[in-house]
Amino acid sequence: MTSISNKTAIAGYGATEFSKNSGRSELRLAVEATLGALADAGIEPAEVDGMSTFTMDNNSEQEIFRAIGGRDLTFFSRIPQGGGGTLGPVQQAAMAITTGIANVVVVYRAMNERSEYRFGQPMHSLPPTSDNVVFAYHGFAGLMTPAAMMGMMMRRYMHESGATSLDFANYAVLARKHASTNPKAFFYGKPITVEEHQASRMIADPLHLLDCCQESDGGVALVIVSAERARDLRQKPVYIRAAAMGSPKGTVSLGGFYKDNILPFDECAAAARQLYAQSGMSPLDLDAAILYDHFGPSVFPGLEAYGFCAKGEAKDFVKDGNLEIGGKLPINMHGGQLGEAYIHGMNGVAEAVRQLRRTAANQVPNVRNMLVTAGSGLPTTAAILGVD
Amino acid sequence: MTDPNAKGHNAPCSNRDFDFFYRGLEEGKLLVQKCTGCGQLRGLPSPGCGHCGSLDWEPVALSGEGEIYSYVTHYHPPLPGFAVPHPMAVVAMDEGVRLLGAMDGADPAHLSIGQRVKTQFVRRDAVAAFRFQNV
């Protein structure tokens, strides 16, 4: 089997500011992020021959390509699953480059997901596609928002693990603490307390407002090339040590209520199994992580699924300070999607690149290998990134 | 229904895999699929059986009773068709399948995992529906 492990690297990243109203088109955000990533890498737009993004992204490959002065696009692909797909385009890039299909792949995600539309609103399930009839079947009961769908899973997690909303507060406080010292974060300078978390209004009980990610405008792009090429470029190569997708038996998009374990766990465990096999690494080799926090509480089963603690023990792992910088597994040093912004996890990938280059606002000392995950509770994706 | 192509229900987003469920509600029945090949019941409709691969199935009516497996109460934003706060539950039905149902009318403070529930058939505007109630 051809391995993708360490064959490719993230050579550049670019990002717009994160806001509640960007004041410009989504395409403009995508183009700004793409040009920023190329400039960061020191690669001319004319060299780009591959592009990959989310099926949910509204910006077409060819329109970005037209705007950046692209010449000959030979590889384009899109990955479904919304925020579950974050590391899918990264895996696409790694596979395309490793197999010689493309040489310079731009991965992008840009959206005005606050000023032009909002994912937190009740879903409208038409036309009757295979996914929409499932969302409609659940919407029939009134289950119409991602918060309520995850709330249903997390209530069961609380029952099985003994975790409480106070435990979930510990993560929210940590994310906002990190955001408070990250000038790029929307909640820069705005830490919260456990008491403020507990007093924040219910969105979908057991989820409080301060358990929920923000809705954000912004764009992020990455430039991925072969490891060999990356070593000749201006930035320290951030190697893609592993990239995987997970959607085991019984997975349903934000509605896997019919399988044995309804927690946002099985799909993460499936991705973890592949990541550790591809990279030859274990959780002990990882110095830090970006764990997807569409809803902060999902971090708890995530820690368990990726092997950082035993099932049901995340509440203690978090309470004991292990997620702090200086702890066993610092996570979401940018403030996560609760604190920095929600760009479908792509801002977290950018943070991993900054951490591994040692240029982050909240830098983890001596970080060499990081896990980056995507949305859970639906088919998911993940990667291990690292530097020499 | 005189039109043989009519769906026989007014649920807003369905297809030919799901129509039987909404038609059942019009008749006051809570239906799930029973695989003709292996007899397995499935809650969430699908054209195929995940156990034996058979595409043949028949609708069977549940007793409507079961116990809460998990639950959530929606507070925000406003929901089309429901007042908030709006409780819902995934229920382990006595026949062995799980179903998601509204629990409007129940006090969100009195929901718990393991709580016994029964089914009540209701109409929501033009649509035949159901909800669970604490026993």
Write a short abstract of this structure.
By secondary structure, chain A is α/β, with parallel strands linked by helices. Chain A has helices at residues 26-41, 61-68, 88-98, 130-139, 146-161, 165-180, 194-199, 227-231, 266-279, 299-305, 314-319, 336-339, 346-357, and strands at residues 8-15, 50-54, 75-79, 105-112, 202-205, 207-208, 217-226, 238-246, 288-290, 369-373, 380-386.
What radius of gyration of chain B results from the CA coordinates?
16 Å
Q: What is the fold named in CATH at topology level of the largest domain in chain A?
A: Peroxisomal Thiolase, Chain A, domain 1
Q: Helix tally of chain B?
A: 1
Give the strand line-up of the largest sheet of chain B.
Answer: 6-5-4-7-8
Silhouette of chain A: globular
What's the total number of strands of chain B?
8
* Total of domains of chain B: 2
Question: Count the helices of chain A. How many?
Answer: 13
- The low-pLDDT segments of chain B are none
Query: What percentage of amino acids of chain A are in beta strands?
Result: 15-25%
Q: How many domains of chain A?
A: 2
Largest sheet geometry of chain A: 9 strands, mixed
Series of secondary-structure elements of chain B, N-terminal to C-terminal? HEEEEEEEE
Helix content of chain B: under 10%
At CATH level 3, the topology of the largest domain in chain B is: OB fold (Dihydrolipoamide Acetyltransferase, E2P)
User: Biggest sheet of chain A, strands in spatial order?
Assistant: 3-2-4-7-1-8-11-10-9
Task: Write down the overall geometry of chain B.
Answer: globular
What is the second-level CATH architecture of the largest domain in chain A? Answer: 3-Layer(aba) Sandwich
CATH architecture assignment name of the largest domain in chain B: Beta Barrel
